[in-house]
Amino acid sequence: MVAYFNKVTLDFSRLGKPTDNAYIESFNGRVRQECLNQHWFLSLADAQEQIDQWRLDYNENRPHSSLGNQTPVEFAKNSSLARQG
């Protein structure tokens, strides 16, 4: 319902076809393996805090092979410098 009111188009993979969106499937697997399966959440607030910590680490501190083994912060900095020079 939130998506509808914000005019977000939902796009679903075909049933039984995880290769339709391999990047998202890979990310979902990482979330489950590295975060959800590692913690016993005591409350909804605790789950939100633990997931937010994982997300921040994933998005800011962790090297990504798709970024040449740079962290997203390093990649953004280097991309910005390349555009300036």
TrEMBL record:
Where's the Integrase catalytic domain? 1-80
Residue spans of biased composition, Polar residues class: 64-85
Q: Which PROSITE patterns match?
A: INTEGRASE
- Report the GO molecular function annotations: nucleic acid binding
Q: Which Gene3D superfamilies match?
A: Ribonuclease H-like superfamily/Ribonuclease H (3.30.420.10)
Q: Name one Pfam family in it.
A: rve_3
> What is the recorded name of this protein?
Transposase
Question: Which top-level group of life is the source organism from?
Answer: Bacteria
InterPro entries linked to this entry: Integrase_cat-core, RNaseH-like_sf, RNaseH_sf
Q: Which GO terms describe its biological process?
A: DNA integration
For region Disordered, the annotated ranges are 61-85
